């Protein structure tokens, strides 16, 4: 099973003899409310567009993203998911020395290794509740000749997030490229934490977003990057295939970025559910729960009664899937991560955890 994108539901459901819909996937971090109804209706209404090539300039899609992110449409790059843009950017920059804020998503390191880049990891630490001091981070960046700094904001799996003012401070006090993966930014206060508004002013900034998580559309493979560096834009566009975004993904994107009701409802509902899970998980004497600005929560089994892998297996028996975080460098076998699902499912998770740890005490 993939250790990068949560559980492989196809594989797991086959092994358990279950339908995928019978599994409660707390490992995927995907919006449990699904995707925009308006966007899905747009697909239905325009289904005959599959017989027409997409607009190679993707004017309408870029306009929709531009208004949504508050940046120039000229500074938008489109990719088949965020991972394609991560790979393209690193390949073009071809860095010799990188700073990777860790623990974090493993794909960054894989792509850096491909270009033979030396990686220095700046670890957030549990004794600091995984919070990062921006001044210390800046000093670390400037301590060597780093070509690139990679930040997942909010960070997966710790949930820590820099504010956009802190990102501005990093940009103003360093001379390196800053790549910010905002995959989970829409689950928090974007006006406070998102860096998209900085793109037009700082050409050393590259912001990447996907639509899989917040917009609940991993199946359409739509991602986008934002940069005002003309050379990078030209280089990435030259690497990407013509019509790399299919017609249906383009139509869906044009609509869902403008669906204010979906965006507002998702943000409010999932923030409420995250706070519910934070409070409930924190009530367990066995857990140390870390604050999160994402739609997922990192917890540690501080009692060490069982390992996270053992907890995962016990919960699978209840059709619940959590993320064992041992594979994240800097975390050990007692860390696990859960995302927010529906309130009913969140309640069932808490009840199941209570049953496991109460039974263990008996």
From TrEMBL:
Residues covered by the Aminotransferase class I/classII large domain: 22-352
Gene Ontology MF annotations: transaminase activity
InterPro entries reported for this sequence: Aminotransferase_I/II_large, PyrdxlP-dep_Trfase, PyrdxlP-dep_Trfase_major, PyrdxlP-dep_Trfase_small
CC cofactor: pyridoxal 5'-phosphate
Keywords tagged on the record: Aminotransferase, Pyridoxal phosphate, Transferase
Coiled-coil intervals, chain numbering: none
Keyword Transferase: yes
Key word Protease present: no
Matches recorded under Pfam families: Aminotran_1_2
Gene3D superfamilies reported for this sequence: Aspartate Aminotransferase, domain 1, Type I PLP-dependent aspartate aminotransferase-like (Major domain)
PANTHER family (alphabetical): HISTIDINOL-PHOSPHATE AMINOTRANSFERASE-RELATED, THREONINE-PHOSPHATE DECARBOXYLASE
Protein name per UniProt: Aminotransferase class I/II-fold pyridoxal phosphate-dependent enzyme
Protein's organism: Paeniclostridium hominis
Species classification: Bacteria, Bacillati, Bacillota, Clostridia, Peptostreptococcales
């Amino acid at each position: 099973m993939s250790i990068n994108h949560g559980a492989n539901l196809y594989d797991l459901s086959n092994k358990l003899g279950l339908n995928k819909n019978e599994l409660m996937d707390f490992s995927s971090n995907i919006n449990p409310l699904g995707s925009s109804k308006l966007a899905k209706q747009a697909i239905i209404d325009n289904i005959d567009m599959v017989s027409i090539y997409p607009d190679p300039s993707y004017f309408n899609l870029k306009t929709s993203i531009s208004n949504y992110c508050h940046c120039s449409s000229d500074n938008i790059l489109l990719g088949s998911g965020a991972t394609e843009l991560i790979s393209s950017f690193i390949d073009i920059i071809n860095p010799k020395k990188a700073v990777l804020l860790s623990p974090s998503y493993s794909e960054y390191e894989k792509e850096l290794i491909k270009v033979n880049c030396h990686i220095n990891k700046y670890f957030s630490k549990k004794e600091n509740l995984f919070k990062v001091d921006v001044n210390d981070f800046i000093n670390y960046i400037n301590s060597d000749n780093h070509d690139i700094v990679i930040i997942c904001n909010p960070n997966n799996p710790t949930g820590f997030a820099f504010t956009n003012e802190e990102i501005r401070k990093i940009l103003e006090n360093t001379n390196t490229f800053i790549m910010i993966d905002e995959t989970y930014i829409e689950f928090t206060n974007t006006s406070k934490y998102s860096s998209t508004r900085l793109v037009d002013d700082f050409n050393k900034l590259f912001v990447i977003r996907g639509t899989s998580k917040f917009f609940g559309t991993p199946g359409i493979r739509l991602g986008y990057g934002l940069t005002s560096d003309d050379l990078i834009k030209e280089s990435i566009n030259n690497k990407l295939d013509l019509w790399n975004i299919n017609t249906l993904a383009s139509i869906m994107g044009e609509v869902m970025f403008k669906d204010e009701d979906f965006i507002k409802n998702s943000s409010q509902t999932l923030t409420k559910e995250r706070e519910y899970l934070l409070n409930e998980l924190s009530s367990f004497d066995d857990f140390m729960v870390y604050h999160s600005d994402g739609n997922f929560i990192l917890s540690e089994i501080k009692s060490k009664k069982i390992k996270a892998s053992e907890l995962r297996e016990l919960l699978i028996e209840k059709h619940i899937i959590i993320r064992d975080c041992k594979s994240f460098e800097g975390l050990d076998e007692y860390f696990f991560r859960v995302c927010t699902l529906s309130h009913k499912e969140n309640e069932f998770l808490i009840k199941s955890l209570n049953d496991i740890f109460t039974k263990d005490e008996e």
